[in-house]
Design brief:
Number of strands: 18
Structural class: alpha+beta
Number of helices: 14
Radius of gyration: 24 Å
Helix content: 25-40%
Distance between the termini: 19 Å
Amino acid sequence: MAALKTEVEVDDEKDEIAEEETLEDVNDDNVSGKKKKRKKKKKKAAGTENDSEAVNENGNTNEVNEEAECKEDGVENDADKKKKKKNRKKGGKTAGQTDPPSIPIADLFPSQVFPEGEIMQYVTGKDDRTAKDRFTSEEKRALDRMQHDTYNEVRLAAEAHRQTRQHMQRWIKPGMTMIQICEELENTARKLIKENGLQAGLAFPTGCSRNHCAAHYTPNAGDSTVLEYDDVTKIDFGTHINGRIIDCAFTLTFNPKYDKLVEAVRDATNTGIRVAAIQEVMESYEIELDGKTYPIKSIRNLNGHSISPYRIHSGKTVPIVKGGEATVMEENEFYAIETFGSTGRGVVHDDMDCSHYMKNFDMPYVPLRLNSSKSLLNTINKNFGTLAFCKRWLDRAGATKYQMALKDLCDKGIVDAYPPLCDVKGCYTAQFEHTIILRPTCKEVVSRGDDY
């Protein structure tokens, strides 16, 4: 990541540029020379001639703002995408990182200012300039600056997620057990996020749901399931700083015959981030598998959702099919935009052994009679609070013989169980997901990376 300039330095540079541009008696050669000097000066002030980016009054890079201004209706052209990819590579976001990654993200950014995600302008009616005006409104930019600390925290969590998942995309191979995969991912993420009790860490267990299972599967201790070459696996995990959660997922395949399914769901997710047309995009695709053609269906009983501190599902839903409950999104809200596609029925149900659990966020105090239940609840409160957890994590926290106590907490409504969600056996499901911030000035896809 490039070094950042202060607002004073930026204002000084603007004054110098304005003074130089008022000189009418300079020839073209002199003007060109001054431009080169200004460019070199900007680079030097930013700390490096290769990795610099000037910062505007809003604390954002000029480069990002130029990209956002040249987008129409939130859609990037090819030149923008190439430019962004190039700049991310040279921007130093993994500069100094080890392979495999082990250095905490906070240590890679001495300024403690972490990378922005993808910036998109709001889209409303064709002739409505209100959304576009938000981007340049000084009032909205001032509101943006007031939330800098919050945005910076979630960007730190996002960078830890990006570096972790990109390592896992290179690392995962068929023949590994699902426990191996989850432990490598979680150990890497814990190092990068600099795990610190409830202040920083993993936001929920690693989902590694395969094939007809769409979500909420993670292996319990003793699960010997092995990843196969023909599997379609959804890798869904979260990181957080002070409860600010990044919820982001991708689909992993090795056999290219599933490419159309993956493409359909990725396209639908990106469309859902821009505009509300997920189902139309998803169901415009079909896939041929082993000589038979299948329509790709949106899984209609899975949705995106709002996110609040220490609460992964905070009340609002983002339907991926038409006819669902209309959701009013508001300024400064956080959302997970996720879409699921299936070659099956397009409906999921609870199935298989449960591994995911989460304390009920709104549950009032309930007296407990069993000492084992009291002890387990203390372990949950200390290690997870209202964040989701799994049985492997209880083992890691030192809990033993907790099955009866866990059932008691679930029966009393203190803890909720979240079993794996599956479509019909024999079908294949895929998922992509990003976390977005509805900033006063723009929409930030904070978890966006070069990978997806």
